[in-house]
Amino acid sequence: MLLATLSTFLLVLLSREALAVPSRERESRQALRCAVGSFMGVVSLPGVTVTIEKAVSVPERGTYSESGNLGFPQTIDLLPALCAVTVKVTNTTDSPTKPVSSYRFGMFLPMASKWNSKILTVGGASFSGGINWPDMGQGPHYGFATISTDNGHNSAGSDLSWATPARLYDWGYRALHGSVVVSKLLIAQYYGQPLTYSYYSGCSTGGRQGLREIQYDANTFDGAIIGAAAWDTLHLMPWISKIAYAQLNNNGAGKLKTDQFNILAAEVLRQCDIQDGNSDNIISQPDRCIFNISTITCPSSSPEGCITSAQAQTAMRVWSDYIVDGRVVYQGFGRSSEDQWAVYFGADSALTGFDFDYERYWTYNNTGYTWQQFTDQAVIESERINPGQATANKFDISGFRTRPGKKGGKILMYHGLADGLVSPKTSLYYYNQTISATGSTLDATRSWFRYFEVPGMQHCFFSNRYNAPWDFGAPGQASALRLLPTLGVGLPAVGDGWGVPGHLNDSNYDALLALTEWVEKDKPVDRIIATAFNADFSVYRTRPICPYPQIAVYDSGNINNAASWHCGSG
Ligand SMILES: *[C@@H]1O[C@H](CO)[C@@H](O)[C@H](O)[C@H]1NC(C)=O
Ligand SMILES: *[C@@H]1O[C@H](CO)[C@@H](O)[C@H](O)[C@H]1NC(C)=O
Ligand SMILES: *[C@@H]1O[C@H](CO)[C@@H](O)[C@H](O)[C@H]1NC(C)=O
Ligand SMILES: *[C@@H]1O[C@H](CO)[C@@H](O)[C@H](O)[C@H]1NC(C)=O
Ligand SMILES: *[C@@H]1O[C@H](CO)[C@@H](O)[C@H](O)[C@H]1NC(C)=O
Known about the structure:
Bound molecules: 2-acetamido-2-deoxy-beta-D-glucopyranose
EC number: 3.1.1.-
CATH architecture of the largest domain: 3-Layer(aba) Sandwich
Largest sheet: 9 strands, mixed
Structural class: alpha/beta
CATH class of the largest domain: Alpha Beta
GO molecular function: feruloyl esterase activity; metal ion binding
Organism: Lasiosphaeria hispida
Shape: globular
CATH topology of the largest domain: Rossmann fold
Number of helices: 17
Strand order of the largest sheet: 1-4-5-7-6-8-9-12-13
CATH superfamily of the largest domain: Alpha/Beta hydrolase fold, catalytic domain
Signal peptide: 1-20
Number of domains: 2
Helix content: 25-40%
């Protein structure tokens, strides 16, 4: 309230001052005030109400956070000087077919002299509500006006209990779409210049949002980085419940204990590493590994250093596809994902990460739902309901590939092969489906949509046991390094808040820059060099990641140096 009064006062002052200066100068001066008034009255769209909540100047090397933000409470630091703006939107256009839409979004607007005339939209994570300020921190360093939506609610990532039909549609696609529509108008007005290019960068749920938007409106983005996309919500969630059920069923006879993920991961590494031809502590082709689980299976019911046959069956289930009525409804996790299984299977005594909340709140909307009630019917129900129309399964994006009167859009998609939260096989499946739905071939698709597998990388970032190269300037990676202290593992913050430490602003190492060169200079992304760090965050090794179907092929020389590798056929 006080803020609004103050900003009205400033606006009055501003317009009075404005009378005295010539109009061009007036526009630029007025446009660059980091104040609520600079953004008021800019957007006039039928059915849409825009409220500018806040505009705050952040100094060079400053920090930003938003108190009360449950999804993204962390403080991001090392920001360049910018204006941080918070906007609230309600949109009644869908009514009465769908409930009224309501969401907020944030913008980081660099100084006019640093603005690259482009907008970057950053995705969210998991089921979080809240503006993803931490991941937005990367964009302004390159000069992007950077935005992200709160997805229409405020919650932690593991919380699914917020679901109402309105919020599900907002989380599903409405909040992201509307946030970009409104922010494009606000940004052009603020700088007094039209935008040149629009980019997207998101991992996990962020990957889903990007694909969903590309399917919804081919003109929102010119280029998108799509990481480890949780695009298939309606199958991913029942799959998580299915493997959790396998753990809990039969009085937990097959439940893997936390230290047994370690036994599995170590044995998978021992058997699989060499099978890809390079004994380098990285499982580069998990699918090609022939794995014998008997080597760690022992008969006793309370084994030391091994697992029981019931536990072995659980592990085999997690690595297998989920088949319902003869259909593969979700591709299982790959070998090398085992270290991340603890996220869904929880502590030894607890239920799983999401605790069947998808069925409880989204599918059946019955707070009394217990895990014992789970059956494969949950998949059929999920397909029927398709909560929030969030699932990005309209694979024919030929409208994005070829846009009338405009250059076609570009997609750079990637997935870590050691991901134990979203199966990398679902990204390959998505790629395959796009090729067939657009009536195309793999070769032709590579001219506008490329998919990179990242051996040894876990979900979106980090590699732990394998210490495989994982940092290539992808969504959330720079902020993950800045936010290390918040993970409680006693590590200090590292990096510069953007790019890859030691390789700032170099498109050979930076997926976002590589994408801009593909879009703006028609330079296809033939490879990106990924980096792994030592404990002190000096460089441990580098290696190219390659567009599918190519893989990194070792030539000769230092195996830990990207120069010793090329992208070729395996
Ligand atoms: C579930 O039921 C509650 C209580 O009736 C309702 O408020 C909520 O909107 C429902 N959620 C969904 C996703 O339909
Ligand atoms: C409002 O909703 C309509 C219908 O869903 C959509 O086309 C439009 O882009 C939305 N606008 C904003 C700003 O949210
Ligand atoms: C798998 O491992 C078991 C136990 O070490 C061994 O007896 C068996 O021969 C192995 N199977 C194959 C196919 O190598
Ligand atoms: C994708 O297509 C390739 C080539 O046709 C095939 O080898 C692979 O099994 C497919 N994978 C999935 C998950 O659809
Ligand atoms: C990055 O490189 C570009 C092109 O060489 C240059 O224009 C820009 O100022 C650089 N940005 C930073 C922050 O170093």
